[in-house]
Design a protein that fits this description.
- The complex is a heterodimer.
- Chain A is mostly beta strands.
- Chain A has strands at 5-7, 10-13, 19-24, 31-38, 42-50, 53-57, 64-68, 74-78, 87-94, 105-106, 110-114.
- Chain A starts with a strand and ends with a strand.
- Chain B is built from no helices and twelve strands.
- Chain B has strands spanning 3-5, 10-14, 19-21, 24-26, 32-39, 46-52, 60-61, 64-69, 74-79, 88-96, 104-105, 109-114.
- In chain B, strands 2, 5, 6, 10, 11 and 12 form a six-stranded mixed β-sheet that branches. In chain B, strands 3-9-8-7 form a four-stranded antiparallel β-sheet, with no helix packed on it.
- In chain B, a hairpin with a 4-residue loop joins strand 8 (64-69) and strand 9.
- The chains are: A mainly beta, B mainly beta.
- Chains A and B meet through strand 4, strand 5, strand 9 and strand 10 of A and strand 5, strand 6, strand 10 and strand 11 of B.
């Protein structure tokens, strides 16, 4: 079974631009979560989608948004990029995301650099 | 709010020796799950071991075992017979029983394995 895939793997943008990152979950998984990883703040939860609906959201500004398609693939968008948005963005999928028994499988991440 | 604390930013172990990574957490929930994730330099996060709070028995996965002290809110990871491939960042993570796709991570411990 193929793992979680994320595209692109690396991205360089300039301040003020917007960016879209993509995540394809493991086949059969309906929950997709997004995390931001930085050296200073560590791993922080962005949001989680299940059946095309955002079920849970972390403490990030509205510039960060996402969506999920009917095939469970998910995208996250960051508008008006700031230098502080430079980070590794990780996507994780699970069967339904409810309760810890559903293990989250992580993708390799997208390294975003904002200049 | 729930928090996860890893007090050891870096640890080092000799190959074939045993090392213990510490993790404490704070929560008022009675139903929750705890995890240890490994993130090698390649960045792919993988689950090492998980513990359900309602289970008194400590989880074990081959060379990896945990010491779960619920009253003390402590969740340490023991790696026996350390191997060079164990070198990585190790993250302790928490999720509540009713949470949806939201893992709360500690800051991580960088483990080095000396040959």
């Amino acid at each position: 079974k193929a793992g979680v895939t994320q595209t692109p793997r690396y991205l360089i943008k300039t301040r003020g631009q917007q960016v879209t990152l993509s995540c394809s979950p493991i086949s059969g998984h309906r929950s997709v979560s997004w995390y931001q990883q930085t050296p200073g703040q560590g791993l922080q939860f962005l949001f989680e989608y299940f059946s095309e609906t955002q079920r849970n959201k972390g403490n990030f500004p509205g510039r960060f948004s996402g969506r999920q398609f009917s095939n469970s693939r998910s995208e996250m968008n960051v508008s008006t990029l700031e230098l502080g948005d430079s980070a590794l963005y990780l996507c994780a999928s699970s069967l339904d995301g409810t309760r810890g028994v559903n293990e989250q499988f992580f993708g390799p991440g997208t390294r975003l650099t904002v200049l | 709010a729930q928090t996860v604390t890893q007090s050891q930013p870096e640890m080092s172990v000799q190959e074939a020796e045993t090392v213990t990574l510490s993790c404490t957490y704070d929560t008022s929930e009675s139903d929750y799950y705890l995890f240890w994730y490994k993130q090698p330099p390649s960045r792919q996060m993988i689950l090492v071991i998980r513990q359900e709070a309602y289970k008194q028995q400590n989880a074990t996965e081959n060379r990896f075992s945990v010491n779960f002290q619920k009253a003390a809110k402590s969740f340490s990871l023991k790696i026996s017979d350390s191997q060079l491939g164990d070198a990585a960042m190790y993250f302790c993570a928490y999720t509540g029983g009713g949470s949806q796709g939201n893992l709360i991570f500690g800051k991580g411990t960088k483990l080095s394995v000396k040959p």
